Every structure is written in structure tokens, then in C-alpha cells.
Amino acid sequence: MEWFRSVHGAPRHPKWQAVARKSGQPVSVVVSVVWALMDHASRHAERGRVDDLDADDLSAYLMVDEGDVLAVIDALAAKGWITDGRIASWEEHQVRREDTSAERTRAYRERKRGDSDAPVTRCDAVVTQHDAPDTDTDTDTDRTPPTPPRGIAADFSEWWEAYPHKVGKQAADKAYRKARKAVDAGTLLAGVRRYADGKPEDRPWCNPATWLNQGRWDDAPADGSGPGETRPQPRPECIMVWSGDCDWAQLARRMKGHGYRVEVPDAPGECRGPAPPPHLIPQIEKVAESFGVRFDVREIQ
Fold first, then answer.
1. Same domain, yes or no, for 83 and 20?
2. Residue 148 — pLDDT band, cuts 50, 70, 90?
3. 86 and 37 in contact (C-beta within 8 Å)?
4. Which one, of 12, 18, 50, lies nearest residue 31 by Cα?
5. What is the Cα–Cα distance from 243 to 249, expressed in whole angstroms?
6. Please, are residues 57 and 168 in contact by the beta-carbon 8 Å criterion?
7. Are residues 157 and 199 in the same domain?
8. Which residue range is the domain that position 247 belongs to?
9. Which of 144, 150, 171, 232 has its CA 20 to 30 Å from the CA of residue 78?
10. Does residue 205 lie in a domain region?
11. Which residues contact 150 (CB under 8 A, 6 or more apart)?
12. Is 239 helix (H, G, I), strand (E, B) or coil?
């Protein structure tokens, strides 16, 4: 049975209250997200890694918005509990599951016991001794296997690189393989490129697995050129003021992951760019606050 280590009192540790205040989520959601992260980290091939957790899937189970889950993850990162996509103290608190010599010996003995139950060679079968001469007159040059065709894993990698909102890679891989039973790789790649080029700026990015499961490669969004349609007007330019200090590159990635097309500087200060849609400003402020910085928008006079 696979497992990970916890300690007495962990569900009621005071730091979850601090994360709750920072993320704006109840402690119950924080603890649920933390334990889901621990479980994901334990199951991961690279134990301790959590940056590919499917927040959309977890939010559906917890019956909360995906943004609530991401807010908790952001707050955990700001508190240093998550670093570089990993649970920071994983190796310190978790048991290492290394393949020791004792384990290898045990596995070898089990294989030997299993061999005794394997079917035996028929009595009239031809048996070749390991030191018998090679009587095959054919040359070995014609036995070189042909170059295998490009596999679905490579197709998925190309599609993944084209998808602008990279979350839930494992779930997306599974959904991609399912979609390939209906359409070819070129159709999926062309569809995601249309989506990346045509997504309205005031809409969040769709989860990759959701995009695939809903057959969104067939979407044909209106471009505003048809009768009765209007093209979206370009957003006016504004001055965005960032106060405080944080990992600005990580903040920029988080904003992009949410689908918020907002200019994030490399250091505290002002920067110019298209004004965010008014209804998204409170959400942008919430993400900025989870990183310990303040975000303000000023009109250009």
C-alpha cells in the first residue's frame, strides 16, 4: 500500500489559518487542498512535485470554484510551503522509497518462485544451447528494425506546447488520447491554435482537459465580421501600479494562467498597458494580494 507521512495535529496547524487569511478561503478548503497536494505529491513519479495538479478536477470534487483552489495554492507558494513546483519540505518529512539491496533480493526470490509456475518447453521442441554455433546463413544487416512512426506522445507534446494555459498535464494527456480516437493530430493542433488566437480577453482560459473533452477543436467563434456582429473594441491604455515585493516572474505566470492579460513588471513600480476589464480587477487584486503585493489601476489623463 502506498502512503505518505503526516504528524499529529497537522490538520489544525496554525499556519493553515494564515494561508486562509491570505487566500480569502475558509480553513476547511485550505486543509482539503493541502491534503490533496500531499496525496498528489506522494503519487507523483517525481515524489514531492505538485505543479501539475489538476485544479479544475479538485475544485469540482470540493464543490468550489477553480479560482478558490488556485488562490490557496498561490498563498501556499507565497508562504514558502511550495517552492519551484514542489512541496518545500517533502524530503525532510517523508520516507524515501529507495530500491535497497534487500528489496532487490526479495524481488529476485519472488521472480524465481514465479518461474517455477511458468509453462515448460514441450519435449519435442528444438532447444538451442547458449554456446551452439550460429548456422543461420542470413546476414544480420537486414534485421535492423525500421524507424518507428511518430507516436501519440510526440503529437501530444506538440499540442501541449501550443496550448497557452498549461495546467493539469496528466489529465490533458488522457483526454488527448481519447480525442485522437475521433480526430487526427493535425485537427487538434489547428483547433488549439485558433483558440489561442481568438479567445476574448475577458474570458479565462479553458482547462486543457476540459477543452479536449468538450470537443472544442470544432469551435468557430465569431470574429465580428458577420451581419449584426460587432468587433470588440481595443482596451484603453492605463497605468498599473504595483506596490510591494514578490517573485514577479511567478506572479506573471499565475496571471497568465488565470487568463488575465495584465502587464506585470520585473520590480515594484508603474507600467503601462491595456486596462483590464473592470469586472476582472477585483480578481487580479486578489491574486496580487496572495503574493503580498498591491495592484492599482490609474487612468491616463
1. yes
2. very low
3. no
4. 12
5. 15
6. yes
7. yes
8. 237-299
9. 171
10. yes
11. none
12. strand
Q: Is 100 inside any structural domain?
A: no
232, amino acid identity: P
Grid coordinates representing 99 are: 530500491
Reading the block at residue 162, the C-alpha cell is: 501550443
Cα Rg, the chain, nearest whole Å? 27
Bridge-based pairing state of the strands 269-274 and 293-299: unpaired
Last residue of a domain, one of 22, 57, 92: 92
Which cell numbers in the block locate residue 224? 465580428
Q: pLDDT digit string (tens) for 234-269?
A: 667 778 888 888 888 888 887 776 666 677 888 888
Confidence check: pLDDT of 121 > 90 = no
* 72 in any annotated domain: yes
d(CA 5, CA 268) in angstroms, rounded, equals: 40
Helices (H), 79-132: 90-93, 101-115
Letter for the amino acid at 75? A
**Residue 203: inside a domain:** yes
Domain count along the chain = 3
Q: Are the C-beta atoms of 245 and 221 separated by less than 8 Å?
A: no
